[in-house]
Amino acid sequence: MKIKESELILNPDGSVYHLQLHPENIAETIITVGDPDRVSTVTNFFESIEFSTQKREFHTQTGYYKNKRITVISTGIGTDNIDIVLNELDALANIDLKTRTVKNELSSLDIIRIGTSGSLQENIPVDSFVASKKAVGFDSLLHYYKSEKFQDNEFSSAIHNHLSNERLAKPYVINSDDNLFDLFSNNEKIHAGITATNVGFYAPQGRVLRVKLSDEKFVDKLQSFNYQNQQITNLEMETSGIYGLSKIFGHRALSLNAIIANRATGEFSKKGKELIEELIELTLNKLV
Question: Which residues form the Nucleoside phosphorylase domain (predicted)?
């Protein structure tokens, strides 16, 4: 079935609408970062860059690190942007843009997020790393997709009941790709984690400036949650969308977080730039 022009929007040059990419511009291994400036921080480690473009907050570079072809793309902040990036990356891999039809043979991408996050637990210290075994989405994105078979519904029900706040949509819970997780989990600096994703940086993450929260105990409840000896380790704004859409589309995903803040102790990293560069180099070397 041909996909309508209003549903799959292409630029005049035939590239996908937001990312401004053609299929040949992306590798099978994708690194996502939030900040457009961080793309160059990653590709500074590359031996060569074959392609570069930027439209809005979506900055993309494709090149080679130790003979492995890798694409680095910035998503901006939030799962609303993840919805755009993941759909358009999947379209590049699995839709014939000229005929506007889904390909008979589908491809799977490896999608690795390198980001920053705040820890919720004292035992996940500032300046460490978290590889997310699960993502807990408070952002509602996956509720718009037919996605139940990919979700850990028992875990979702347990945390929904623990939070006891009917104003919140029931969270969805999605696992990482097992093989990618295993690749990164054998490093002593990397903690296995369960990452919560929410829709904002301030009230949705329990921060108060001038306006009171609807649930002043939200972060406390996340910190105290325990289901079958599993705790929420950190809180950020993208991982659940990446995991959810990757599962739906048949891609493999892993989120890696540099812990720059600890909400339990009130600490903030004094070497955030060096920490993210360390995580980038670690990630690239694992991928090759």
Answer: 30-268
